Amino acid sequence: MTINNQQKIIIITAPSGAGKTSITRYLLNKYSDKLAFSVSAATRQPRGAETNGTDYYFMSEEEFTDKIQHEEFVEWEMVYKGKYYGTLKSELQRIWTEGKAPVLDIDVKGAIHVQQQYPDTTLSLFIEPPSVDELKRRLMSRGTETEESLNTRVNKAAYEISFKNSFDRIIVNDDLQRACAEAEEAILNFL
User: Fold this and answer.
1) Which residues 6+ apart lie within 8 Å of 40 measured at CB?
2) DSSP β-bridge partners for residue 136
């Protein structure tokens, strides 16, 4: 039995700072006819120029928990107290209706959860930093982290890396061009 793109899901996951957003943008730009970005829901406020429906579906905590109770999420997580993130089932359906495969740029726990629900129709890519030290350097170079938030992210990253063997493909991002090419090859073979 062949599965069409309308039933396939591509998951790109990584610790913060590993380069998953850069790789995701590259793939979406190059394959806009085949792939579409799955917009996550979030209970946080928009940052900078973020817009509702493009960057996230911004909603209140009450709206989000109501959708949890009505089983409207494929996966969701309370990342910090009162800060929920998740993937709506309706978002996957919207993309499948366009004849494309949704690309989920989500955290490690969410990625494992989606794979468990769609074991035969997902391709999961784990983007691994060359080392935890390099990851720390990348996060520091952003200039957006306090010492405390930096340590929290680095510790979380080390924990997330311990799950890398739960995914279909591990791509070490020590060279962004090569990592993009590896992700591209895996996705084209999958589709």
Assistant:
1) 56, 57, 85, 86, 87, 91, 105, 106
2) none
Tell me the whole-structure pTM to 2 decimals.
0.88
pLDDT in tens, the chain (191 residues): 344 455 899 999 998 888 898 999 999 999 999 999 999 999 998 988 999 999 999 999 999 999 999 999 999 998 777 889 999 999 999 999 999 999 999 989 999 999 999 999 999 999 999 888 888 888 888 777 788 888 888 888 889 999 999 999 999 999 999 999 999 999 999 99
Exposed/middle/buried for residue 191 (C-beta within 10 Å: 0-12, 13-18, 19+): middle
Rounded Cα distance, 63 and 82, in Å: 12
| DSSP letter, residue 55 | T
Name the burial class of residue 171, with classes exposed (0-12), middle (13-18) and buried (19+) by CB atoms within 10 angstroms of its CB. Answer: buried
Q: Which two tokens stand for residue 13?
A: 């996951």
Which amino acid is present at 52? N
Closest residue by Cα to residue 125 from 3, 6, 27: 27
Domains of the chain: 5-190 (3.40.50.300)
Phi, psi of 129 (to 5 degrees): -70, 155
Beta-strand runs (E) in 27-91: 35-37, 40-42, 56-58, 73-80, 83-88
Give the distance, in angstroms, between the CA of residue 169 and the centroid of all CA atoms in the same chain: 14
